[in-house]
Amino acid sequence: MTVYMKTLNVKDAAGLFMRVSTYGGWINYDYMYDRVVQGDTDWHKNMIVLDIPRDTSLIDFGVWIIGKGEVQVDDFRFDVVDNKLSVTGTSEKIEFGQPENLDFEGYTD
């Protein structure tokens, strides 16, 4: 994902995020925590590179901000890239347990 971002008076931190979820329980994600933006910045190009598995069920993306300030974004693009470009995020397997209390009768305080 490529996007242009501009910040105004970002007190604490801001960034972009992208998360890819699969039917098999894997998630690939990058929240840009290792390259946050602060203060005032002019328009600059940002990239998030993630593997998109064939069994992908959901792709989330957007902007986050902590504290006061403003983030402007423009020109979100999604492109296929070759393997020479390094992945910027992390992958992990999420294990889900069996559903419980499906009749809603087992709730306790």
Short description:
With 109 residues, the protein is mainly β. Helix content is 0%, strand content 55%.
Tally of strands: 6
The succession of helices and strands, N to C, reads EEEEEE
Tell me the number of structural domains: 1
The whole-angstrom Rg is: 18 Å
Number of helices: 0
SSE layout:
Blueprint lengths: L1 E21 L3 E5 L6 E11 L8 E11 L3 E8 L12 E4 L16
Antiparallel strand pairs: 1-2, 1-3, 1-4, 1-5, 2-6
Describe this structure in words.
This protein is mainly beta and 109 residues long. It is built from no helices and six strands. The protein has one domain. β1 and β2 form a beta hairpin. It is flat.
List keywords for this structure.
6-stranded antiparallel sheet; 0% helix; mainly beta; 109 residues
